[in-house]
Structure formats: structure tokens, C-alpha cells
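// run 5 | inverse folding | seed 20
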């Protein structure tokens, strides 16, 4: 009887963990999609929803191969002042969540950039805290 009860408790706990992980993955994806929509629509509110702007940074490869480092608040200002471009698209390629607190996501931005995001659960919300991008250039 103790073995059956132990197995039942273990099954219930693992089911709860999978449900939490699925909810976390959905919330991480929502943050990444807010980023896409914010850039596409030049929407400051969506960008500020996606990023932990005061603490976030963006790093990426320039065409000359050097790496640029940018303050996210300045980048959000710049993206918010662009003209909206409804043709922008993107696809989440993968999401991994670790212990319900940190995550990373890989994102194809418009077929032009490969974005790697680090996210953290800030309070009860998933926020992008770092972005590393690599342009995808045609050879």
C-alpha cells in the first residue's frame, strides 16, 4: 500500500511540474512574440512588456564581425520611432526553461537574424534580460 501511495504522489507531482513547465514555456513564447510585435508595429508598450528594459542588454554581430553592445532602453527608443512594417515575421525555434526561473529561446527574426534570448521570471512575468543576435547573410 505504501508503494502504491508513493507512486501516486510521485505521479501527481510530476504532472504538476509538467503543467508548470508548459505554462512557463507559453509565457516565454508570449514575451518573445511581444518583442516581434513591438518591433513590427513600432509599439513601445509591447517592447516594454517583452524586455526588462532597465536591466537588459542587446549584443550582436556587426557586418565587420565585431560585436556591438547596446543598452535596451536606447534600442526600444529607436525601434519605437521606426515606421511600422507589417511584413515582418518570426518563428520561435526552441524554448528551454530551467527551474521555473530562467529560460532561453532561439528565434528566427524575419529570416534576417537569428536571435538568442535569455529570459528571467521577474516577479510573476517572464522578461527578456539579454538578446544576442547574428545576421543571416546570403552568401
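// decoded
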Amino acid at each position: 500500500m505504501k508503494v502504491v501511495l508513493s507512486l501516486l504522489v510521485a505521479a501527481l507531482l510530476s504532472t504538476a511540474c509538467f503543467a508548470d513547465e508548459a505554462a512557463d514555456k507559453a509565457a516565454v513564447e508570449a514575451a518573445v512574440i511581444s518583442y516581434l510585435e513591438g518591433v513590427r508595429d513600432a509599439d513601445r508598450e509591447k517592447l516594454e512588456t517583452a524586455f526588462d528594459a532597465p536591466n537588459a542588454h542587446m549584443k550582436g554581430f556587426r557586418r565587420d564581425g565585431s560585436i556591438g553592445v547596446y543598452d535596451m532602453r536606447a534600442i526600444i527608443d529607436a525601434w519605437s520611432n521606426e515606421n511600422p512594417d507589417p511584413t515582418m515575421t518570426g518563428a520561435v525555434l526552441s524554448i528551454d526553461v530551467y527551474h521555473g526561473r530562467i529560460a532561453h529561446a532561439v528565434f528566427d527574426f524575419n529570416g534576417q537574424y537569428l536571435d538568442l534570448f535569455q529570459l528571467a521570471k521577474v516577479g510573476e512575468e517572464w522578461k527578456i534580460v539579454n538578446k544576442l543576435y547574428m545576421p543571416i547573410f546570403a552568401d
